């Protein structure tokens, strides 16, 4: 975990930006010794957004399953995939 003071963000932005891109990890910014914000590369941000969207989809599917929504069996799914691969759908 990388922690930098807010003055470093102002004075060393390019180095912090490069570190975030190279490490792929967020950099925590402090102000007067207290946590204040987080800096991350756009790539890391987009990956995080994809992961959160995927997690939300999984949670929605699980909630639907628990509420009694109809489910697809593995056999039915395999048959559908096979039909798609063979151009029968």
Task: Explain what the structure shows.
- This protein is an alpha+beta fold and 89 residues long.
- It has four helices and three strands; from the N terminus they run βααββαα.
- The mean pLDDT is 94.
Key phrases:
alpha+beta, 2 domains
Describe the SSE topology.
Blueprint: E1 2-5, H1 6-11, H2 13-23, E2 27-31, E3 34-39, H3 42-66, H4 74-85
Parallel strand pairs: 1-2
Antiparallel strand pairs: 2-3
Summarize the structure.
By secondary structure, this protein is of the alpha+beta class. The chain has 2 domains: 2-40; 44-85.
Number of domains: 2
Q: Biggest sheet, strands in spatial order?
A: 1-2-3
Tell me the total number of β-strands. 3
Radius of gyration: 22 Å
Average pLDDT metric:
94
Outline: elongated
Largest sheet: number of strands, sense, barrel closure: 3 strands, mixed
Strand content: 15-25%
* Distance separating the two termini: 50 Å
Oligomer: single chain
Q: Which range best describes the helical content: under 10%, 10-25%, 25-40%, 40-55%, 55-70% or over 70%?
A: 55-70%
Number of distinct helices: 4
- Compressed to H and E, one letter per element, the order equals EHHEEHH
User: What are the low-pLDDT stretches, counting only 5+ consecutive residues below 50?
Assistant: none
Based on secondary structure, the structural category is alpha+beta
